[in-house]
Design brief:
The chain is an alpha/beta fold. Helices cover 43% and strands 19% of the residues. α10 (223-238) packs antiparallel against α11 (244-258). This is Glycosyltransferase.
Length: 276
């Protein structure tokens, strides 16, 4: 199996330049180098972000969208420019461990049936810009089920794939419809469609990425996020992934947390939804 892979990233104007630079550095300095790094500029960027992109101009394939259209649209467009069958996702504020991509490529080489592969992420809070500093700021780990049958059950309740460190087959993703507009749930929606298309999933038990979670409890609250939850779980029901009672129960539980005051929601995330 070919070891070539493309990296797919997206950035928009509200993101932090120094975090973007750290993310790009972590993916450039992998022990197994990417064939290409496709970075989608989702609308106009600030001068500070442009300076970061200029610094890496020889290493990036830049795809520029005229206006901000959201993550689903940006990733769908970026996927068109990825030439490799294997696409590695990387967010613009996370830090990949140096051997992340090598581990994933070696795994799918020995398990050629796999179409989607993710792993454990270490969640950290702070301004770390290196692996060493991020390690000192870890607050929790996000574990997900490892084999396809467990993932197929888990997906009925929670997202079974850590999107910030996923690697997927381009052809299989496109066959399932690729990334689509599904506000805040673009990745979860894709996994559902790929699973229904008989794709095979797996997750590594290893920690392969440090995920920056600064103020995540705030981003996952409010009316807009509650509407996104309602829309996605109605979609799950219509696709016959879950029954009506489960749809009502899961939606009620998630929206209740979403509409809690920020500090209460933070406590729920810290005490119940994270693995310390």
């Amino acid at each position: 199996m070919d070891k070539d892979y493309s990296v797919l990233m997206s950035v928009y104007q509200k993101e932090c330049p120094k975090y973007l630079e750290a993310a790009i550095n972590s993916i450039i300095n992998q022990t197994l180098k990417a064939k290409e790094i496709v970075l989608v500029c989702d609308g106009p960027l600030t001068n500070e972000l442009e300076k970061v992109l200029e610094k890496f101009s020889q290493r990036l394939i830049l795809v520029r969208l005229e206006k901000n259209g959201g993550l689903g649209k940006a990733l769908a467009e970026g996927m068109r420019y990825c030439r490799c069958e294997w696409i590695v996702r990387m967010d613009s504020d996370d830090i990949a461990l140096p051997n992340r991509c090598e581990k994933q490529i070696l795994y799918v080489r020995h398990h050629p049936e796999i179409d989607v592969l993710s792993g454990t992420v270490a969640e950290f809070e702070g301004d770390a810009l290196t692996v060493e500093d991020a390690r000192q700021q870890i607050v929790s780990f996000k574990y997900v089920p490892e084999n396809n049958s467990s993932i197929a059950e888990y997906i009925k309740f929670r997202n079974p794939i850590n999107h910030p460190c996923v690697m997927l087959r381009k052809s299989k993703a496109l066959r399932a419809g690729g990334y689509q507009q599904c506000h805040m749930f673009e990745d979860y929606d894709l996994w559902v469609r790929m699973l229904k298309n008989k794709c095979i999933f797996a997750n590594l038990p290893d920690t392969i990425l440090y995920m920056r979670t600064n103020n995540m409890h705030i981003r996952r609250g409010g009316i807009a996020y509650a509407k996104a939850i309602l829309c996605f779980w109605k979609r799950m029901y219509k696709q016959n992934m879950i029954g009506l009672p489960q749809c009502i129960l899961v939606t009620f539980f998630r929206i209740t947390i979403c509409l809690c005051p920020n500090q209460i929601r933070k406590m729920i995330y810290d005490k119940r939804l994270r693995n310390h």
